[in-house]
Design a protein that fits this description.
Blueprint (H helix, E strand, L loop, with lengths): L2 H19 L1 H22 L4 H5 L10
Helix pairs in contact: 1-2
Length: 63
Amino acid sequence: MSMAVVGLLAGMGLGFAGYFGGFGAFLLVAALGAVGFVAGRFLDGDLEPGDLLRGRDRGERRR
């Protein structure tokens, strides 16, 4: 399944939640979708637990 189809389905799900449940339901569905996305990336091996907590390496510090 392409990322465009996944985005379409996610947008439709958020739209239905917002229409039938109001703004609170929209936010709940969006937050749970983000948690599910991160969990899926972690289970696929694309994301490690330290990636969420570690800062970016910037090399030299700017003055």
